[in-house]
Amino acid sequence: MNPRQLTFVREYRGYSQTELASHIQGLSQSNLSKFEKGVGQLSNEVLQRIVDFLKFPTSFYEQAISNKVDSAHYRKRVGVAKKEKDYIEKSIKLIGYIVDQMSDTIEFPAFSLQTIDISEGFTPTSAAQIIRRSMGILQGPVSNIYTKLESNGIIIIEIFDCNEGFDGVAFLTDMGYPVIVINGNYSNDRKRLTIAHELGHIVLHISPDFAIPDCRNKEEEAFSFAAEFLMPSDEIKGSLTDLRLSYLLPLKQYWLTSMASIVHRAKDLGTISSDKYKYLNVELSRKGYKKKEPGNVSIDAPSLFYEAYQLFKTELHYTDSELSHIFHLPIDVINHFCIRRRTHLYILKH
Question: For position 343, what pLDDT does the model report?
Fold first, then answer.
């Protein structure tokens, strides 16, 4: 058994070392700690009890999962407990692992977007303009954002069993597939901003072809990319002059972005003063719009990952047991990630 895989499964299942040891006859926390660090041994009987309790196939403990994830985006003002972070990050790695397992049998669309090294004279803003053009978005808002990214080879998955502290993450799987995982519990305008932000990370930061100096602020770069991608400056700037509270809802409904992000965009583009920016934010807060804004924003739905799973089930006729065997995962984990949880998404057709 690979000790790292045991730690992986334990943290995904939500157990501390002490909690797991309390459920396993003949296991102490200290012995488990030594085993996970690779400096101790556990008997075959105890290892089998752990495997039976955690309900992951024995073959999973022989796998090697990397799926390096170093840019998970958490909201700074919302605390996220270590146990929940461990669960989210293990979930992300499992999703990447499932994508790679699927790719042994089916072919995902090739990644077709340009990755851009901004040390070569580009900026996050100019990079967003390049990506808009390459996607055929010549003007106006970005409609059908999931479909546009997935048609360019980016696999997007929503997860729902996480709190509001987690926004999203972008990463390359071990086999090199670009994946975005987002919190599916958020409003549609928030999802769109998160997707655009993570697209910025894919375009600017995760290419193996160029290194990113530590001095660069990747989060700020991704937000600048997202703002230009969703609300191009040459189109929106004129409508942000003398911005008033009453203008925000119509602008939101056109650009499919939150009222708060529109106010922030106005500040960044210099169309409102710092005092006006503060005033508008105070008004948004006073009306309760910081917690829940009026107006619905339409959005399409992710499909690549979920359709791939259905292909295994309906076209290739794999049973749950067979998928569990070839993926080296328990059925509950496969179903948890691969079966779409929410269907009440609004679809925008242009």
Answer: 42
pLDDT digits (tens, 9 = 90+) for 257-300: 999 999 999 999 999 999 999 999 999 999 999 999 999 999 99
State the total domains in the chain: 2
Crossing angle for the helix pair 3-13 and 82-103, to the nearest 10 degrees? 120
Is the same domain home to 25 and 136?
no
d(CA 289, CA 249): 11
* Nearest alpha-carbon partner for 198 in 283, 302, 291, 337: 302
Contacts of 189 (CB under 8 A, 6+ apart): 252, 256, 257, 258, 261, 293, 297
Please tell me whether residues 24 and 122 are part of one structural domain: no
| Same domain membership, residue 160 and residue 254 | yes
Interval 70-80: pLDDT, tens: 656 665 555 67
Q: Which of 286, 314, 332 is the last residue before a domain boundary? A: 286
Structural domain boundaries, residue 183 = 73-77+89-286
Task: Tell me which residue of 119, 152, 117, 120 sits closest to 133, measured CA to CA.
Answer: 152
Cα separation, 110 vs 301, whole angstroms: 20
